[in-house]
């Protein structure tokens, strides 16, 4: 970074800290004596997450113009987007539902676009939430301003330490989004990021949607996003592979490997095939590649076959690798990285 950029970022950190003190927001503190060996188990949290990712549809600080560094707009979000397709049943349907089913945005984001006059049906701007159109013949378009608003939404990578919950913390818990503050920004990988985006990211981290939870005792990569459609595609998309490095309490035998890579039932439901590798002969360390994330899946499956997980570390989601991101740090994903997640979730 240039000296001017460093001075600007230092000023940004100082202002953010002053604002946080005025708002009486406590700093995040992870207990130093937290023991990973006392893990209770869980690859995925029990906490409930709505498929639209908690987004309330409001414009969270975007000025609607997008960003020069992140200006590429998804083809589905361009002003030429249309609903016409034989994939839909015949008849009338709400415009917001059509846009959400197309993956252009979440249902709540569609409702906000309509309220702001950023959606056209057959060339006419609509503002009525209950507006319906023919799903196969009418043309539904998001305006260029609407596309810019959608593409301006931020997506972050966070390296969650054990001891934090992914979302919806109880009174005595701390959410992983609390990491997203200026002092934890991994600037080495964000030299291209505009200062306005850094301010937006840290202004209210609780607004971000979690794309695939990690339980309190697990650590590693979390994806947080303002983009409701992206959150839904990552959570529900079986094409988005998630990679974990798992340490067990005993040596992994060949019989374990056959069981883990075979047909596995959990709660009476057959899981999608897991790709499990042993990292070293007779090792206690495994690599899991999953295309779904059932509740505490990895830990429960290991327990089923006589192995107890003592450390669970998620290192990759789709093409997003945790890389050199330090534990307890965060960074903003590039437009290409976001596009790769969107493509994998289709």
UniProtKB/TrEMBL annotation:
Domain RNA-binding S4 intervals: 93-155
Region (Disordered): 29-86
Listed Polar residues bias regions: 75-86
GO molecular function list: pseudouridine synthase activity; RNA binding
SMART domains: S4
One of the protein's GO biological processes: pseudouridine synthesis
Keyword Isomerase part of the UniProt annotation: yes
CDD domains assigned: S4
Extent of Basic and acidic residues compositional bias: 43-72
Keyword line: Isomerase, RNA-binding
Stated name of the protein: Pseudouridine synthase, RsuA/RluB/C/D/E/F
